[in-house]
Amino acid sequence: MRIVITGGAGFLGSHLCDRCLAEGHEVVAVDNFITGSPENLSHIDSPRFSFRKQNISEGIFIDGNVDFILHFASPASPVDYLELPIQTLKVGALGTHNALGLARAKGAGLLLASTSEIYGDPLVHPQTEEYWGNVNTIGPRGCYDEAKRFAEAIVMAYHRIHNIDTKIVRIFNTYGPRMRLNDGRIVPNFLKQAILGDPLTVYGGGQQTRSFCFATDLVDGIYRLMMSQENMPVNIGNPSEFTVLEFANLVKKLTGSASPIVHQPLPQDDPKQRRPDITKAQHILGWQPKVTLEEGLQETLEYFRHKLETMPLEAG
Ligand code: UDP
Fold it and tell me: Which of 17, 123, 170, 264 counts the highest number of beta carbons within 10 A?
């Protein structure tokens, strides 16, 4: 297939480029580097790969045939989308509209990267695909949550009206190499703090929960979904759930760090609990995560250590 990957220079987008190339496809990555980085693609040396620098909220321009679009462009860390709320809303709404327009013009399928954030601060636990969510539309996270909820709605409209073969993956917390050290999420923050011997910043009491999936596991679930017949949303994530405090202690143990734990204010509307019900992915895709948190964190730790050695300024 010839596959267009929006957000192709991002954390997940670049791993998807790798996977699609390894499967023998042709890949056209598109990114405007607002949160992605050319460095995430610098290792790729394939005649089946090409890159276009474009802001997909303004349009996506791809010559030739396209068989499938993996639509991953968006700021995705709370710190990023708090700084870039308008760009986040535009890429979720206009960018998704443009991606669907491209799919329609080329007769291509499209997979939308949606998110567990569409469940908001969930009142159902663990979260199944049937749950409609509990989102504060006007809160600080509303720009991301509502952009992705709109994106799901317009994807379903194009599926129903224009018969496009669409897929929706709801991605839960994911980590791994190529996350930005300074993206503000829990995994880069804690690993960086542990490596540098700085205090680990636990927000609130640390009793809120998250479930962490390693990037290669997630990409495998997404690849399987792309190749499947399923058009309704599918949760992909790792169901092993930790409190933030437990996670901080695990990072300390794994890194052997003597960093103390300090508490900082809990951000507004921070979801109190999050864990995917992955029954649907298990049944429909034959997928489940394989990498343990210890293994995944070890690999991520090595990546961040190397980054800190080679880019001390950004790290600071
Ligand atoms: N968090 C924390 N300290 C940090 C960064 C995050 O305690 O330095 C908490 C945050 O409040 C949330 C969880 O870790 O409860 C996950 O946050 P993240 O920003 O990774 O993503 P989210 O799951 O909230 O989208």
Answer: 17
